[in-house]
Each structure stands twice: as C-alpha cells, then as structure tokens.
Amino acid sequence: MMPNVYDFDKTVVYPDSTAAFYRFCLRRHPKLLRRAPEQLRALVRYYAGVITKTHAKADFYAFLRDLPDWRAEVALFWRRKGPAMLKPWYLLQKRPDDIIVSASPEFLLRPVCRQLGVRLVASRVDPATGVTEGENCHGQEKVRRLRETFGNVGIDEFYSDARSDEPLARLAKRAFLVKGDRRIPWDGN
After folding, report:
1. Which residues of 105-137 are buried (b: 16+ CB within 10 A; e: fewer)?
2. Which residue range(s) make up the domain with 158?
3. Which of 47, 79, 82, 133 has the most other CB atoms within 10 Å of its CB?
C-alpha cells in the first residue's frame, strides 16, 4: 500500500504553525518584538524580489536566538495549542504510513509528528540561529526532499491547501485541495 502525503499548515492543522508558534512565543517573551524591524525589512525585500523566501525566513527565524530554551517552548506550544489546532477529519483518517511534507521547520513539527506517529519531511532550520540548511521545503523542493528521504515512493492520496503543491499533487493517484475542513478533488485528478 502506498502512503498518503499531506502538507501540514492549513491542511492537517488549521493555522500556519510557524505563525502560531511565533505568536505563542511573543506572548510569553515580549522582548522578541525587538526583532520586528529586521523581520519586516526581510518581508519587504522578499516581496520586492531582492531576497529569496529561504533568506527571508532565516531573517524571520532570528527571534529563535532570543528564546531561553527553544525545545521547552516547542514542547509547551504543542502541549497547550496542539489539540485544538489539529483537524478532526485528519485524525479520523490518519494512518501510520502517512508522510507530512511541509515548508515549516522540522524542529517545530517533529514533536507533533512523533506524537501522531507519522513521518516528516520539512525545512531544515537550525533553531539556534534561524538559518535554513538547504532550500525552504516548498513547491518542487518538496518533491526533491520526499525523493531524497523515501526514494521513489508512490503516493496514494495527497492533501494540501496550496496550489504551490501542484508538483506533489501530480505524483498522487488522487489529490485533494483542503479548504477549512472540506476536501475538494484537485483539478485534473
């Protein structure tokens, strides 16, 4: 049997997990706001086409350097916020061979994927520095990273909220676009 593959943010969970984690950390550590000017500057430079998404995310993740213990923050985040963030439909159909492929950082998703008992491919972000090792796991990079990790694995069903995941959708026997709790057949599948 081939595994099902899922995007994570707004697919398996309701919010963008990185943004939710950042807000969680800001409430607990308001001093993180001191990074806001460099984060905003990176966002403007990204949308102006001056820097890549990978570089912009590294500038955003600079807030991690100001956390006293990122591991403790991640654990507390999932303990407090995780249950409400997970979509019930996913929990009902989850299988042990599922693979999550996400642009979110691996260090953030690893604990919840371990708890769910599923496999993970995600952006390799150093939580001590915020620097991404390699490319952001997005678009065609998701296919490359899935193949790098699991070889030429087939995909039974693929689920994502984002059209940018078309490269993975094309590999699946069936693909679904996720809007809230609705799963709509992906065009062309």
Report:
1. bbbbbebbbeebebbbbbbbbebeebbbeebbb
2. 5-185
3. 82
Measure the CA–CA gap between 173 and 155, rounded to whole angstroms: 6
Compute the distance between CA of residue 2 and CA of residue 157 in angstroms, rounded to an integer. Answer: 9
If one counts the domains in the chain, the total is 1
CA atoms within 13 A on the CB side of 149: 16
Per-residue pLDDT of 96-114, as tens digits, reads 999 999 999 999 999 999 9
Note the pLDDT tens digit of each residue in 7-61. 999 999 999 999 999 999 999 999 999 999 999 999 999 999 999 998 999 999 9
Whether the CA torsion 64, 65, 71, 72 is positive or negative: it is negative
Rounded Cα distance, 58 and 125, in Å: 8
Question: Chain-wide mean pLDDT for the chain?
Answer: 95
Q: What is the CATH number of the domain that holds 18?
A: 3.40.50.1000
CB neighbourhood size of 176 (10 A): 21
CB 24: neighbour CB atoms within 10 A?
17
